[in-house]
Amino acid sequence: MNQRVNIESLELLLNDKALSSDHKAIIKKVIADERLTPEEGVFLFEQGSLAYVGALADFIRRRKNGDNTYFNRNFHIEPTNLCVYDCKFCSYSRLIKQRSDQDAWEYTMEDMMNIVRKYDGQDVTEVHIVGGVLPQYDLPFYTELFKKIKAHRPELHVKALTPVEYHYIFKKAKVSYEEGMRLIKESGCDSLPGGGAEIFHPEIRKQISADKCNAEQWLQIHQIWHELGMRSNATMLYGHIEKWEHRIDHLEQLRQLQDKTKGFQTFIPLKFRNQDNQMSHVAESTTVEDLRNYAISRIYLDNFDHIKTYWPMIGRTTAQMALAFGVDDLDGTIDDTTKIYSMAGSEEQNPALSTQQLVELIRRVGRRPIERDTLYNVVQDYSDVEFAEDKEFRGYISLPVVNN
């Protein structure tokens, strides 16, 4: 029934005399589940209104996932914010020469294991590990860390490190990407996060992150991981100095790799935040542009099952709105274990949501809250779950009786 209503909304758009033939051609393609060209993708950014792209994206979201909206119970470990690289947009990292700064940190392996142990007995399903790049965090370090986590808690899914870290540690260890990824898999890493992608186009990448792995290397590491039978995510850092065609070029390269491997699970647009970094002069994108970007990403990435909004970065209010613009995943509980975006000025300065808060966030917009594991297996459907607080009597206010 929802799908029929959804199609009718697009059919109404087809009868809108104010829309151009190019707009209507894209609507017909979306209804027919046909792939958009890069030129049509750029057209959506240039001439697609928020209402127009939102309607298309919501149709695709319903077709792929119905009203299911996913989240998981997770926590982060960020080994260090010291880094050998100097990305211009990064508010989180500090150079090695800033090691003595009060807001710099370097965790030992035991520090990281203590974070894991903190969640013993709690219903978390994933640890997300990503941080700065330093020489001591090398291949032997991480393979030992992953093995220790798995020995301590075998069922905990380890989602760890981006191609930025892997490129560096494999080069330092003098091993190929293929050999390195095999060792990472054997040590207990279960999947890769999507970070470090930024913008693939060299014209932009060389201006914002020239000294770390390039687009080809990022894609190659993910491809090798997929060919090992493993899964990963993908991201795009948007809203800074890139143009529409750079965004579509980025999405196109992801779409092409997904055609080959089918190994990406979800795409996460990441909003550039301009506090305390070398690009603070660049204005941030508006909420309208954030929502348009979610929608166009959903429309263009026809071979991605899921689009995620990372609520600690975008804020819970915008994340909730994004559910009407193609998004079907809100990430996880986080439990105030990440500083990457809070240090860049995001709305969520201490990011943590309980399972109940995430469920209520989803329910309020008429969606079906589904707790998932990292691989999108359903852990629990919260559609009809009552929390203890829902059953509590909260009292009443005695109002005066008015006799007319």
Give a quick precis of the structure:
The chain is α/β, with parallel strands linked by helices and 404 residues long. It has helices at 2-14, 21-31, 38-47, 50-65, 109-118, 139-152, 163-173, 177-187, 202-208, 215-227, 244-261, 287-300, 311-314, 316-322, 355-363, 388-391, and strands spanning 68-72, 74-77, 126-129, 157-160, 191-192, 231-238, 264-271, 306-307, 329-332, 368-372, 378-381.
Could you give the count of β-strands? 11
Query: What fraction strand?
Result: 5-15%
Helix content range of the residues, please? 40-55%
Looking at the structure, the CATH topology of the largest domain is TIM Barrel
Annotated CATH homologous superfamily of the largest domain: Aldolase class I
Major sheet: size, sense and barrel closure? 4 strands, mixed
Shape: globular
Main sheet: strand order? 9-1-10-11
Indicate the radius of gyration in whole angstroms: 22 Å
Low-confidence stretches: 336-346, 391-398
Q: How many distinct domains?
A: 2
Q: What would CATH call the architecture of the largest domain?
A: Alpha-Beta Barrel
Walk me through what this model shows.
The protein has 404 residues and is α/β, with parallel strands linked by helices. It has 2 domains: 2-65, no CATH class; 68-379, TIM Barrel, CATH 3.20.20.70. It is 43% helix and 12% strand. The chain has a 4-stranded mixed β-sheet with strand order 9-1-10-11, with helices on one face. Helix 1 (2-14) packs antiparallel against helix 2, helix 3 (38-47) packs across helix 11 and helix 5 (109-118) runs parallel beside helix 6. The longest helix has 18 residues, at 244-261. The radius of gyration is 22 Å and the shape is globular. Residues 336-346 and 391-398 have low confidence and may be disordered.
